[in-house]
Amino acid sequence: MENIFNDEYFMKRALQEAQLAFERGEIPVGALIVVDNTIIARTHNLTELLNDVTAHAEMQAITSAANALGGKYLKNCTLYVTLEPCPMCAGALYWSQITKIVFGASDEKRGYRAMGSQLHPKTTVVSGVLADESKNLMQRFFQERRS
User: How far, rounded to the nearest angstrom, does the alpha carbon of residue 24 sit from its chain's CA centroid?
Assistant: First the structure.
């Protein structure tokens, strides 16, 4: 029997969070953290609502997951995020010791890879999962802002 709980399944849930961000006027990035096929954190960018430049989806997810687990380390957890993490988020993910990161669209200008940031050496990264859907939502958001 096929396991429906795969990277694409969870990235679709992250895209739902990104859509919520879009509808609320936030840059449409959604994130969730999963352990044993269970979502323990689900969020999106909140920088406008909280008036906080650090309120990225990943940062919110890290805090929520740590609270759910009762500890600061996210070992055996997977982060699903619609956009490649920035260096700030990569640093927080490094310290959380998260096991796996799956992201959709790459960020060639502000992503952690473009800016030379590092993740924890034991963290596995999968990129490009539903990248087109993630990129299209982001482009639509900025096109509407410019019109």
Answer: 17
Q: Is 8 an annotated catalytic residue?
A: no
Nearest to 26 by CA among 68, 58, 57, 69: 57
Q: DSSP code of 147? A: -
- According to DSSP, the β-strands at 78-83 and 38-44 are unpaired
How do residues 1-18 score in pLDDT, each as one tens digit? 667 899 999 999 999 999
How confident is the model over 43-62, as pLDDT tens digits?
A: 999 999 999 999 999 999 99
- What is the value of pTM for the model shown? 0.96
Strands 38-44 and 100-105: unpaired
Check 58, 84, 108, 133 and give the catalytic one.
58
What residues have CB less than 8 Å from 79, skipping those under 6 apart?
A: 31, 32, 33, 58, 61, 62, 93, 98, 100, 101, 102
Q: Are residues 126 and 85 in contact, defined by beta-carbon separation less than 8 angstroms? A: no
- Classify residue 5 as left (phi > 0), alpha (psi -120 to 50) or beta: beta
